[in-house]
From TrEMBL:
F-box domain sequence ranges: 1-45
Identification of the protein by name: F-box and WD-40 domain protein 14
A cellular component annotation (GO) from this entry: cytoplasm
Keywords: Ubl conjugation pathway
Source organism of the structure: Mus musculus
Entry keyword annotation includes Transcription: no
Keyword Cell division assigned: no
Entry superkingdom: Eukaryota
Pathway: Protein modification; protein ubiquitination
């Protein structure tokens, strides 16, 4: 005899389950299947995993349920791990001298099962920005020539918007389909040192850090100034958002490291807080920072211990606490370890959603748990590792010859699985170095600085993945 529990308590219980557990619950009986397939539950899972789900409706993606979206998007994310090198099309973009060699993705759709997905990047010249279809190797849009040189750019792929700042400290918002500027403001800050756009639960924003240590937050699309706060006595050099944009970690490098972690709601809703809510993590000589994917409150800092040049990893859990009517932030040290001297000095690192730290030294790729237990080693000598890309699904190693090694995080273990190598197809011999590697669901791009020759953008686009 089947037992039917009341629907409301059952939905509350099911809301704590992950996707795999929901699928198991759906096998119990017809009633459980109906509840476990609820759009309310699957939308919550989608929004937790992909923040931009807050801003669109399913019909725009040709889907009927959030459960369909979850599995389609998961399929997209893992497409590259199922591929082979021959499944990629290679395109090369020799850039003119005036191009700045730091492209940003502007495309919002990943690979689709019917092959209609497209990847596009946005690049800047001295006084123009342009977008490129990297599968076709063709320019798709170009802005008018600007009166002042563009010094910073960022993009918001979810809205196909680009943000630029020029030498006169004028910030401009561009819809990368139209010639006219969406919004423009000038004279608010002095000498921009940091520019980043993000999509938050409160809507899309752009952040500007200036040479005086001020952080400005503007609303997209009208560039209304939401808040301004002085973070450091000098410039903000680096900024890192937590996965769901609850926290933002900032670093100022000058003489000694200065750090602050802000509660984003206190910056986005200044009328609700008497002052921005922040705390300091006392870790000197920070070299890299990485928030744990799909885990909102955990951050790992890679720092250097002098004079021994020993690398240290510290993992903190951030917590919001209330004392009377006052809200405070506490950072609790969860784990810490140092690398042995013979393990080298890592240049790059990242963290998986299972709290596995992957870092690259000059000749090795190393995996540790957050307490320092060595899990895996990949040797690269005589090749050298120049760049490391880490996301919740992939790890991409860029070698000195321009080749790319693609790894995937194992689902049922803490280890990495090497999938394949994309060999450098650049017809000119590499005379410089790779300055940037990044990827989306269907492509991987690298920028090579072949000085004194023009920079080169190399793009691998996934065609078919069964």
């Amino acid at each position: 005899m089947e037992i039917h529990l009341p629907s409301v308590p059952m939905m509350e219980i099911l809301s704590y389950l992950d996707a795999y557990s929901l699928l198991q619950a759906a096998q119990v009986n017809k009633n459980w299947n109906e509840l476990a397939s609820s759009d309310v539950l699957w939308r919550k899972l989608c929004q937790k995993r992909w923040l931009y789900c807050y801003m669109f409706t399913l019909p725009l993606h040709g889907l009927e349920t959030w459960k369909q979206f979850f599995f389609n998007k998961t399929w997209q994310e893992h497409a590259k791990t199922r591929a082979k090198p021959e499944d990629f099309t290679y395109k090369e973009f020799p850039m003119e001298f005036e191009f700045r060699a730091h492209p940003w993705y502007i495309s919002r759709h990943g690979l689709t099962r019917n092959g209609q997905g497209k990847s596009a990047v946005c690049m800047t010249s001295m006084n123009r920005i342009s977008t490129w279809d990297i599968h076709e190797g063709a320019m798709t849009w170009e802005s008018p020539k600007q009166p002042s040189y563009i010094v910073w750019m960022t993009t918001l792929p979810e809205m196909q918007i680009a943000v630029t700042i020029d030498m006169q400290s004028t910030i401009k918002l561009w819809d990368c389909h139209n010639k006219e500027v969406l919004a423009s403001k000038t004279g608010l800050f002095f000498s921009c040192k940091l520019l980043q756009s993000e999509f938050t639960k409160d809507g899309p924003i752009v952040l500007v850090g200036d040479a005086c240590g001020n952080l400005y937050i503007f609303r997209i699309p009208d560039l209304h100034l939401i808040s301004k706060v002085n973070v450091f006595p000098y410039s903000i050099d680096e900024l890192y958002f937590s996965p769901q944009k609850k926290w933002v970690f900032l670093i100022g490098h000058r003489l000694n490291d200065l750090t602050k972690v802000f509660y984003m709601s206190s910056l986005l809703r200044p009328s609700e807080f008497s002052a921005p809510v922040s705390t300091v993590l006392e870790v000197p000589l920070i070299r890299k920072v990485f928030w744990t994917p799909r885990r909102e409150d955990r951050i790992t800092l890679m720092s250097l211990i002098l004079p021994e040049n020993i690398t240290k990893f510290d993992t903190f859990d951030m917590k919001l606490e209330g004392i009377g009517n006052k809200v405070t932030i506490q950072g609790y040290l969860t784990a810490s370890f140092s690398l042995a001297e013979d393990e080298g000095t890592p240049d790059h690192f990242g963290v998986s959603d299972k709290d596995v730290i992957v870092c690259s030294t000059r000749f090795s790729l190393l995996l540790f748990d957050i307490n320092g237990l060595r899990l895996q080693t990949f040797h690269y000598c005589p090749e050298e590792i120049w760049r490391l890309w880490v996301d919740p699904v992939h790890v991409i190693v860029t070698c000195d010859a321009g080749s790319l090694d693609i790894y995937a995080w194992e689902k049922r273990s803490l280890l990495l699985r090497k999938c394949y190598r994309l060999r450098n197809r650049n017809y000119q011999q590499m005379s410089g170095y790779i300055i940037k590697t990044l990827c989306d669901d269907m492509s991987i791009i690298s920028v090579a600085n072949n000085s004194p020759k023009p920079c080169c953008l190399m793009a691998y686009t996934l065609n078919v993945c069964s």
